[in-house]
Task: structure prediction
Amino acid sequence: MEVRKICQWCGKPFIAQKTTPCYCSHQCSNLGYKERIRERKRQLKRSQELLQPRQAAEGQDFFSFAQAAKLMGVTRQYIYKLVKESKLRASRISGKKSLIRRADIELMMKTKPYERIMPKEDFGITEYYTAEEIAEKYNIPTTLLCDTNHILYSDYSEVIVVGAGADAVDYKLISICHKGDVVVSQDYGVAAMALGKGAYAIHQSGKWYTNENIDQMLMERHLNKKVRRSSHKNHIRGPRKRTEDDDVRFAQSFEKLILMAKSKEGAQSGTI
Result:
């Protein structure tokens, strides 16, 4: 049996005798393995850096702006922005010093101030399309990615199939992502890397990822994962069933992002 596949490391096509191989050569396999180890170490280091301020702040009820920024894993400027926009409450105790209560931070986290809520009156489109149809409408080249466990067909988009390894599709997406591209992903980590490469990113719910909200979203994901692991009794409800209204909301938000990206880049942007 011969299976045509794409190497997860170098991106070159190769012929495999089984469906399991993900690399075209032993050298690429070794390089891919070393990169996965390095990425795990980086993730562990980031997790430890996020946990250290929280462990040091156990039992502390009041924080300075700098301490609150470390606790939440964001910049001090972002804390100032939240306070200025009245999304986070701060109490002035002197002419030059203000403190933030732990209770106010927890209350703000529940309200999710980083989510961009689009009013219904902004949705003036009566028809809605899939992401691929919208890209075709504006004549934008589109790439769809999947692993060998899934099958995708398209008359318009380029379809790239990668091995079924852990996060293989995510690594491939980031490797071919360029400045000005538009990435559709529900993974916050992928969105953060795409933003780092100068691309635009959107969640399947229609929510835009931006440099202003990505840090907070990553922090929330980290805290939720920590809660899930802390006890088997803590169960966080999964996402509700997707409805037609969700499809409409995504299509309208995605089309607006396409138009915004085109106007900013001054040329057609690729869509992944």
About this structure: Strands lie at 3-6, 13-16, 62-63, 91-92, 98-101, 143-147, 158-162, 182-184, 200-202, 208-209. The chain has a mean pLDDT of 78. The radius of gyration is 22 Å.
